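Consider this one:
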Amino acid sequence: MLYRGDFVHTVQLSDIMICHDYLLGKSSMFVSMRRPRFPAPSYRTRATIPSFLYLQASFLLPTFCDLHLHAPQFLYQGTGLHLPLMEWLNEYAFKAEERLDREPDLARRVYTRLGERLVENGTGAVLLFGTIKEETNVILAETMQKIGIRAFIGKLSMDISTRPTYTESTPSESIASARMFIDRIRALTAHLPDHARLVEPVLTPRFVPTCSDALLRGLGDLAEQTGIRVQSHLAEARDQMKAVQESRGMSDLEVFGRARLLTPRTIQAHCTYLTPEEFSRLAQHGTAIAHCPLSNAYFSGRQLALREALDRGVRVGLGTDIAGGYSVDIMGAMRWSVGMSRISEGTRLEQSGCQATALIQATVSVNWKEALYLGTRGGALALGLGGGVFKIGAPFDAQQICLLNPNSAPAGIGPLDFLASNLQSFELSLEMVEKWWCVGDTRNRTGMWIQGRQVFFG
């Protein structure tokens, strides 16, 4: 299949590249990308040419990566956001997860709808927290594989709980279950060719308050033996950090470090209370951060110091954190990340009195281009994937964004309008991409491919 048109990607943090009128060849990977040697046929004759997709008034963009989402919590998405974190977990999260472990038919319905919503919103790769029970997480993996999403599935490991019915009884039981889960998920796709194996297991100690030191050490050993990814929560909220300090006499960063769970294949969510020096420690370990600006606004009491983390060399991507966040849309996470960073920048300048020239020239805010990088390439790098960018040999994970119906100009598709533009001959501009980034929605997404297979038809 050949695609001709405009391609947009972010190779570097602050740079957006628009490749105008390129010809792209693909299978499950990108196999060629070059300027065509022949003029484009007219719009009227394009449909008669086989094996071509012409991107009329649209562009291809790498799919989004969601680095932090609690799959069972999709059951109550958009509700119960009024409590502090530790109370919220006991009142909502644990109950929902335990219910799905009891009701496999409900779990399959929830996970199927979640997968459909992810595809609808352009998410092609997602790092998922599941539940305690192995079978329920296998359902989650089967569902994501069938829908065609690149999914990294985490069976929860937790031997401490405020709900006696929702816990694993001993560290050894929890570690044995995690090992079994790894084997089961790998067996699920073992019969498929490499490019079609879309789901992978992830070690998932929920967070320090639900895990004994013995369990964390055992998971550290297992991570070292298997080389698989690790995910958890780190320095998220004051009540969580206080609980760790009182029970362990140290920070949760130190707890994870002693258990050897800070690795180049680890992604830690939130990290809102880390200091610049602690960001440097994460960078030294190669550990990435899942930045969840919406749920941070509800539960953390502060935002991640995003610019400082990036400046210290930490890999960062975005997460929706369902259901601590209320939307599965990574575009919302991108917009929130910029908005919250602008607030942080304003607070910094106010506190400084705007006296020092060097302080004024420096900034802790991020812009929309950088946020787009975090939602695509940044997330892919955090997951250790070769995607998030258009290059030969990268997985063909792409979404088609349509801006304009040629028959209805200057009104664009969905919420987009181009009222002062001359659209007689369409030429994609950076301003058009920015307009879509700010106000576009699912109506602009007309196709999506994962590993070369089309999984969404708009």
Q: What stands out?
A: The longest strand covers residues 15-26. Residues 42-50 have pLDDT under 50 and may be disordered. DSSP finds 14 helices and 15 strands in the chain. The longest helix spans residues 330-352.
